[in-house]
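Could you help me review a protein record that somebody else here produced? This is what I was given.
***
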Amino acid sequence: MKGYVLAFIDVEDPSSYAPYAAGAPATIAAHGGKYLIRNGAKELREGALPADRLVVLEFPSVAQARAWYESPEYQALVPIRQGASKGSLMIVEGFGEVS
């Protein structure tokens, strides 16, 4: 079953955030992940946005999403993201086929 990473981020210091944004894609690809959404245009229809920036990643499995997040390469970038932004990040199990 596929694994997804959802991140809701408010970037507070764009220049400090830039190294994170430049470095994260290679760590994602190295674990079989890809961007589905990388802060595209939004059209709010109901409620309130939890953050300005929305990112959705897809991995072949939840285990691979966890391996990416826990990898030394990504963990080296986490303090950069956390120092330049506020937000939430979660790993979500995808919906399986109904039989």
User: Anything to note?
Assistant: The chain has one domain: 3-42+53-93. The longest helix spans residues 14-30. The chain has three helices and four strands. The two ends are 14 Å apart (CA to CA).
